[in-house]
Amino acid sequence: MKKLIAGFAAALCLVTSAVASGDGGVPWDKFPKEKVTDMAALQRGAKLFVNYCLNCHAAAFMRYNRMRDIGLTEEQIKANLVFASEKVGDTMKVSIDPKEAKDWFGANPPDLTVIARSRAGSQGSGADYLYTYLRGFYRDETRPTGWNNTVFPAVGMPHVLWELQGEQRLGEGHKLELAKPGTMNAKEYDEAIGDLVAYLQWMGEPGQTQRQRLGVWVLAFLAIFFVLAWRLNSTFWKDVK
């Protein structure tokens, strides 16, 4: 129940952040993009997404069974990632009533299917933004939720992952300092957030890895074809003066 309430509050933040946050503030850290092709990282990210994000935020353009593309079997998906009455072939929706959500938060919780693609800015990719944002929460008793964020000042979202990271405080020079440890150390938490963001990026375009791999083969084919065409053209015209 506590996780569900925290998830409801998180919805308000992402609604606001999707339209109000800019490229200002602290520099964005670079997301470890190699994780997007790491199947184990994507699987861990999917688990975090389902447990911490999917309480309120749908991914209505993604089906659970599409996670077979990241190495999970249908049995694993059904046993570990599908809850309540959903089926493996269903889209990743939530049960929040849109009218009630609007009454509670002022707007419906945004869909996260393409959140990593929509947050790109002058400082970097959408994945860079999310990677920095999810690691930038700190305690702020002046805020209604008790939390603030270095990337998005006056954020409305509570830190739903605080049990993993612990509690940070804003120290001198606006540097974050760990005031209370969580279940993970700093390195482990950064790795977990990298996994989560990798999944969010993959979810925005599940076929991106296959597309990039196919693109390499297409370029190689065109290069070989160019050489053959050039040699054939030389042969045809060698006796023409």
UniProtKB/TrEMBL annotation:
PROSITE patterns associated with the record: CYTC
Domain Cytochrome c per the UniProt entry, residue ranges: 40-204
Signal peptide residues on this chain, from the entry's feature table: 1-20
Names of the cofactor(s): heme c
Chief location of this protein within or outside the cell: membrane
Record's keyword terms, sorted: Heme, Iron, Membrane, Metal-binding, Signal, Transmembrane, Transmembrane helix
Keyword Heme: yes
Segments passing through the bilayer: 214-232
Co-factor note (free text): Binds 1 heme c group covalently per subunit.
Molecular function terms from GO: electron transfer activity; heme binding; metal ion binding
GO cellular component terms, A-Z: membrane
Residues binding heme c, per UniProt: 53, 56-57
Protein name per Swiss-Prot or TrEMBL: Cytochrome c1
PANTHER family documented for this protein: CYTOCHROME C1 (PTHR10266), CYTOCHROME C1, HEME PROTEIN, MITOCHONDRIAL (PTHR10266:SF3)
Gene3D superfamilies named among the record's database cross-references: Cytochrome c-like domain (1.10.760.10)
Subcellular location as annotated: Membrane
InterPro entries given in the database record: Cyt_c-like_dom, Cyt_c-like_dom_sf, Cyt_c1
